Amino acid sequence: MNATAADVRRRCIARTVRADVRALTRYEVPDAAGFIKLDAMENPYALPPALAQALGAALSRVAINRYPDADARAAKDALRETLSLPADAGILLGNGSDELIQIVTSTLARPDTGVLAPDPSFVMYRRNALMAQAPFEAVALRSDFALDIDAMLAAIERARPALVFLAYPNNPTGNLFDAQDVERIIRATPGMVAIDEAYYAFADASFLPRVLEFPNLIVIRTVSKIGMAGLRIGYAVAHPDWIGEFDKLRPPYNVGSLAQSALPLLLAHADVFAEQAQAIKAERARVADALATFGAGVFPTKTNFVLARMPGADAAFAALLAAKILVKNLHGSHPLLAHCLRITIGTRSENDALLDVLGRHLTQRA
């Protein structure tokens, strides 16, 4: 019998695609059309009309027929000025912090010395280690989601990792690790420590001002959580010697002209995003208090989301879906996250809709 095109294609895939990649499932992003979207840690607030109009005018002047500035100089200058980056530090821009995580991992990790991170944490640390064909060591957090510092230090001594990732604050748990524990990890690690500060705007804590204090530290951030997720701009800050090595793996023109043009204009209005962050933090406290009143266990958070443990998390998730509200169901993803939902903080009306559904659901189960 002649082989069909599908048979030939399947055999070709089996021969050529790495087995570990074939075993993966893709990172799923659910279709949120028509939903109240509380699953992706986005800022729920639109730009003020005057700022949106100014942005539109600026973008209309971008020469999209030309490649962007390969060094993204204006965007870097705006970040340095707005965020008061250490003057002697180097900076690298990426297509979101995801690309920077991939670049750092690809530069450092190899089959004989890999990546180490607490667990549970951001899933892309593990996936990027796999892509680099490097070992990944997960060190379980304590039941309260704090670092098990003794276990971390023992694992570092045993594995001698090329790279340690620490999300500060942590995703999906929301908590901020003890700064002294983080310092101990930096000093004990023979390779580099990457501190992922995606949620810095909500944390009131950062290692960015100290990035040059340690010889093996890089801080990775994104502007996604503060209200610019559509720009897909991440930035990494470290000593210029480190940035020079990572820059070798950065694809040319990896940040587009529209994003490069938008960022300086938006950062010039940093007060708008700071006010929105304060509103999110106030709503975060209100949502957490209400969930606790309904009987959910709410964990401390320094992010723009809350992690809540509740009886019948699957049923609660289904009830929210039926009401066209999308959150992240973490039940079954990790033993420490049993019966947990991760809920991004939305606008007041969006949060009210969420609390109405969960209040009725949890009251009925009580």
Textual characterization of the structure:
- This protein has 366 residues and is an alpha/beta fold.
- It folds into 2 domains: 5-47 and 271-365, Aspartate Aminotransferase, domain 1; 67-268, Aspartate Aminotransferase, domain 2, CATH 3.40.640.10.
- The protein has 14 helices and 13 strands.
- Strands 2-8-7-6-5-3-4 form a 7-stranded mixed β-sheet, sandwiched between helices. Strands 9-10-13-12 form a 4-stranded antiparallel β-sheet.
- Helix 8 links the parallel strand 5 and strand 6 (192-196).
- Helix 13 (313-322) crosses helix 14 (348-365).
- It is globular, with a radius of gyration of 22 Å.
- 40% of the residues are buried.
What's the gist of this structure?
With 366 residues, this protein is an alpha/beta fold. 43% of the residues lie in helices and 15% in strands.
